[in-house]
């Protein structure tokens, strides 16, 4: 049975010259499983629930980090609809065209392969996405800094955000 998938474009979140967008979202039951034309790194900030990746459910909890290349379908679901235990995530969205433009600056072949994988050009069907754990909170702190820099949008925000990426 085919699943109905939504589609999100980088243009819905980022201005024309932006390469990065960071937000914080309280997940709901109504969002469609979706794909997008940007790279997404998702950090579970609080709560528990499920994430469906390519239709397969997996449990998620605070500290889980998911790297979702272009074209990987996914959606989060909180474990309960009650607002007392929300599932909150931080999304780091990276414009794929930007990564393509800077790929030639990457120092070695392995890094270029990793960039291709992030852009959905990987040739390993068994490794469509990746998961890690933020046990020490470093990814959380960096993502909060990135979110704060981008929220200011002062004259230096792109340069500062690039330092973190």
From TrEMBL:
Output the Pfam families linked to this UniProt entry: AraC_binding (PF02311)
Residue spans crossing the bilayer: none
The residue ranges of the AraC-type arabinose-binding/dimerisation domain are 33-130
Cite the entry's keywords alphabetically: DNA-binding
Work out whether the entry's keyword set contains Transcription regulation: no
Q: Name it.
A: AraC-type arabinose-binding/dimerisation domain-containing protein
